[in-house]
Specification:
2 domains; D-Maltodextrin-Binding Protein, domain 2; 15 helices; 335 residues; globular; 45% helix; 20% strand
């Protein structure tokens, strides 16, 4: 009898312990769980962060979304440590350690955010084809590839060095910048062009917009989706076919990327119900480019643009969320 009593007590304690453990992943009444996401400084990621903020804070109970501003490298390392929960727009092909980090379990693939992104060297379409409506004649009708730039240094003059042309590079600290600079050297463009880093996405895009409005030639780094690709007619210069063994040396094109949502190894345990949302959270290059063009034209904030895109594309909420959660978000954005 005594043994049976001890056994019953043991079972009850075990059940209570298991129950307590299972409740650790739930938000307790009055508790707020802070979810931290990366803010690496570019508009499309900031927009995705604000869309996620609306859903997380209004579609669910007890969560607050915060951002961690910093370089891609710094935020990536913080996510490995578990100090950051999510990278909602992750250009994983630009992260050298990504395969190893996933294999080690330090980084977890959650979902595919945008299946069709691109990056590389771009020129305005009128540089190649002209623009009859603006009275612009084709400037470089034979310009198709990155290597073809060797024929046209005088078309893209560097105002500070008239003996060379100018190529606008990527953002300092981005892996794309390292690859692009190697490409610049590999094709011998360093003999006839200066490689100019402007320091931020805003100043880079401002230089393109300024040239575009004046109908001048411009060549430099861009990526999709951006408000630039949604608003301006620009062309990605071709390159050698993508080869993973040559890519990091700058000897081929940037791969068309699946922009991923990745998380720390701790996120699934901290917020399992949010994990289900982020697994389904998907947009698209054109949809985000259009939203970023709206942001620029209306001078709206990223938060205001996030609310606009959810109103204009209401069907997304049903794709991402259970019905009850979707209705909560609708109630917020329509009030």
């Amino acid at each position: 009898m005594k043994r049976n009593y001890v056994f019953i007590i043991f079972v009850l304690v075990l059940i209570i312990s298991i129950s307590a453990c299972s409740r650790n992943t739930e938000v307790k009444p009055g508790e707020t769980i802070k979810i931290t996401v990366t803010d690496n400084g570019w508009d499309s990621q900031m927009l995705h962060n604000e869309i996620a903020r609306i859903v997380v804070e209004n579609g669910y109970e007890g969560y607050k979304l915060e951002t961690s501003s910093g370089s891609s490298t710094m935020n990536w390392q913080a996510m490995i440590k578990g100090d950051i929960d999510l990278d909602i727009e992750s250009w994983t092909d630009n992260v050298v350690s990504y395969p190893e980090d996933v294999a080690n379990g330090d980084i977890v693939n959650v979902g595919i955010l945008v299946p069709d992104s691109a990056q590389g060297l771009y020129v305005p379409r009128y540089v190649i084809e002209g623009d009859s409506e603006r009275g612009i004649e084709p400037m470089a009708p034979d310009l198709k590839t990155v290597e073809d730039l060797k024929k046209y240094p005088e078309l893209f003059p560097d105002d500070e060095d008239r003996l060379k042309g100018r190529i606008y590079g990527s953002i300092p600290g981005w892996m794309a910048d390292e690859i692009l600079y190697k490409k610049y050297e590999y094709y011998g463009l360093d003999q006839m062009y200066n490689y100019t880093r402007l320091g931020s996405e805003a100043t880079l895009f401002a230089s393109l917009v300024s040239a575009y409005n004046l109908g001048k030639a411009w060549v430099g780094y861009c990526y999709e989706p951006t408000w630039i690709s949604g608003k301006l007619d620009i062309v990605l210069l071709e390159d050698a076919p993508y080869n993973p063994e040559l890519y990091l040396e700058g000897k081929c094109e940037f791969p068309r990327q699946e922009l991923k949502i990745v998380s720390s190894s701790k996120f699934a345990e901290r917020a399992p119900e949010l994990l289900e949302f982020f697994k389904k959270y998907k947009t698209g290059s054109q949809l985000i480019a259009d939203a970023l063009a709206y942001l620029d034209e209306t001078k709206s904030t990223h938060g205001e643009t996030a609310k606009w895109i959810l109103k204009e594309n209401d069907y997304l909420l049903d794709e991402w969320l259970p019905k009850e959660n979707a209705e909560k978000v609708r109630a917020y954005i329509n009030k």
